[in-house]
Amino acid sequence: MNRSFVTACASALLVSVALSGCASMGGSADVYSASQAQRESSVRFGTVESVRGVMIDDSNGRPGLLGTIGGGALGGIAGSAIGGGRGSILTGIIGGLAGAVAGNEVQHHFEQKRGVEITVRLDDGSLRAITQRADGPMFYAGERVRLLSEGGITRVTL
Predict the structure, then answer these.
(1) Distance between terminal CA atoms of the chain?
(2) Which of 22, 113, 20 is nearest to 69 (CA)?
């Protein structure tokens, strides 16, 4: 197998993994799905009690299949190119295993997004904690905010 083919495969896999990590927009207070548009939401007002940074895992704890399979395939191809005969089979297997582990870690990295957990004391005195992506405005303790709720989804906005 020639090196330019292996390099092209590796580049294509890295780009597809990176793009798959960017495809999910869930968890953002500023992004609405088409089915959420033109729907009525209940609005409550409150004051921010605290804000803390969190990580949001878009994979929901599931292993990254694309990264594992792609990394394993590329590792196997690269490993089999080393040595000859039985040596290339062994290095192909080792390369495949190492590539699968590395591919899964790369995909996992791209699926983690920065988020915030915002604790709000509503005007009725009750406390609510909402976790959302940290891609909108920053919230501060003592700040007045709105909680928009619809269909089990609540967003904190200014």
Answers:
(1) 57
(2) 20
Q: Which amino acid is at 84?
A: G
**Span 49-96, pLDDT tens digits:** 999 999 887 765 555 566 567 666 666 676 667 766 666 677 777 777
Amino acid of residue 99: G
pLDDT at site 31 = 76
DSSP the chain: --HHHHHHHHHHHHHHHHHHHHS--TT-TT---GGGTT---EEEEEEEEEEEEEEEETTTT---HHHHHHHHHHHHHHHHTSSSTHHHHHHHHHHHHHHHHHHHHHHHHHHEEEEEEEEEEETTS-EEEEEEESSS----TT-EEEEEEETTEEEEE-
User: Among all chains, which residue has been given the structure tokens 């390099």?
Assistant: 7
Asked whether the beta carbons of 130 and 156 are under 8 A apart, the reply is yes
**Residue 150 structure tokens:** 């619809």
The candidate with the shortest Cα–Cα distance to 80, out of 19, 150, 1, is 1
**In the predicted model, what is the mean pLDDT of residues 118-136?**
94
- pTM recorded for the entire structure: 0.55
